[in-house]
Specification:
This protein is an alpha+beta fold and 166 residues long. It contains 7 helices and 5 strands; from the N terminus they run αβααββααββαα. The strands form 2 sheets. It has a 3-stranded antiparallel sheet with strand order 1-3-2. A two-stranded antiparallel ribbon has the order 4-5.
């Protein structure tokens, strides 16, 4: 599996959150490394230097703090899962939906109502409404219709629960 930088950061942040939830007092690189191998289902341990490099990048981005103890550092997340989810949604909203919450809500409603993942094998198109998948049964060259009004009405509770899951 070829993981991108953002994927590595997310795996390591999730490992930190899991370890913090287990009330680990000081989380060192080796703790994160072991957690990823044992708890996250990876077949072999990541190199110590890989985990440390990604943690240091997260420190540079101010998502994680670091404190020295002897020759080693211990790490602590600066955001909880919910806060990280809110930031991710804000970035998604800006990047792909031109800060239009209604467009994002419509897309979330469409995804929620799909019996299967519509984006796994369907081509996408970029339009004024952001990135959308070509609806099943519709040729790629056909214009993409806007979601029905009932699809754009997504409750605030659904948005909040979606933000927590990211």
């Amino acid at each position: 599996m070829n993981l991108k930088q953002g994927d590595l950061e997310n795996i390591i942040l999730n490992a930190l959150w899991d370890l913090e939830a287990a009330e680990e007092s000081k989380i060192f690189v080796s703790h994160v490394q072991d957690h990823i191998k044992n708890e996250r289902g990876h077949l072999k341990a990541w190199a110590y230097t890989t985990v440390k490099t990604v943690l240091d990048r997260l420190v540079d981005k101010e998502l994680v703090s670091r404190q020295k103890e002897g020759k080693k550092y211990f790490y602590k997340s600066q955001l909880d899962r919910h806060q990280a989810g809110v930031l991710a949604l804000e970035k998604l909203l800006k990047q792909y939906f031109q800060n239009d919450v209604a467009k994002l809500e419509g897309t979330l409603a469409m995804i929620k109502n799909q019996p299967q993942k519509p984006y796994a094998s369907r081509p996408t198109q970029m339009g004024s409404g952001g990135i959308t998948a070509t609806p099943a049964g519709q040729p790629v060259s056909a214009p993409i219709s806007q979601p029905a009004p009932s699809q754009t009405a997504v409750s605030a509770g659904y948005m909040a629960s979606t933000a927590q899951g990211i």
